[in-house]
Specification:
With 213 residues, the chain is of the alpha+beta class. It has 9 helices and 4 strands, in the order E-H-E-H-H-H-H-H-H-E-E-H-H. A 4-stranded mixed sheet has the order 2-1-3-4, sandwiched between helices. Strand 3 and strand 4 form a beta hairpin. The N and C termini lie far apart (47 Å).
């Protein structure tokens, strides 16, 4: 059985869409998915980069595109009342639902993603967060130092592994970034001969022609 690490931050609509598409895409394959919540903002900071929602024009396009993709894929997706928002309480809640040393289960991830991306409500509303927490009944305190450490360690490990965006699906040393990489992921799982050729490694050795000052 192949293990796929699904790195995500629930703040990402692309992660929400990929989460919904994965079961159908992976059907019939001997795989196990580990859902690994990470703080996307910390990943961006490590790379001195901005997220799509922080770039004028790209922000508008992102919301248009994910709405279209949800429509196209038949996946309900409603933009929350405000975006971006602080995802830390939701990330810590996810880690709090898992025993120490384990990752959250699919049910908890689904509940958090639906909290954000279904209904067009305020994802950061304290009352809604309290209700979600009560519903999930986490086995650990989301505010506990060990839970905060689990999120921080998972994020640091993702960066060390080469994760630069969410969602990222990882198999060993191969990273597949984005909703549109799911077909590439399944190609790898199915033994497409392209992955035995030179193209994968050639991508990292291509010389840089020019760099901006």
């Amino acid at each position: 059985m192949v293990t796929i690490d699904f790195y995500f931050d629930p703040i990402s609509p692309y992660a929400a869409l990929a989460f919904e598409r994965l079961p159908e895409a992976l059907a019939g394959r001997s795989v196990a998915v580990r859902y690994v919540p990470i703080l996307f903002g910390a990943v961006l900071k490590s790379l001195d980069n901005k997220g799509p929602a922080e770039i004028p024009g790209k922000r508008d396009w992102t919301y248009r595109q994910v709405s279209w993709l949800g429509h196209r894929l038949g996946v309900p997706l409603d933009l929350p009342a405000a975006h971006p928002f602080n995802p830390l309480p939701l990330l810590r809640l996810l880690w709090a639902t898992a025993p120490a040393g384990q990752t959250p289960g699919r049910y908890a991830v689904e509940r958090v993603l639906h909290h954000i991306w279904r209904g067009g409500l305020d994802a950061a509303d304290p009352q809604r967060l309290a209700e979600l927490t009560a519903d999930l009944a986490p086995m650990r305190d989301p505010g506990a130092a060990e839970v905060k450490a689990a999120l921080r360690e998972a994020t640091d490990a993702a960066v060390a592994r080469g994760v630069f965006g969410v969602p990222t699906m990882a198999i060993g040393d191969k990273l597949f970034w984005g909703l549109d990489a799911i077909d590439m992921l399944t190609g790898c799982l199915d033994g497409d001969p392209w992955f035995d050729g030179p193209s994968w490694d050639a991508a990292r050795t291509l010389p840089v022609g020019v760099q901006r000052g």
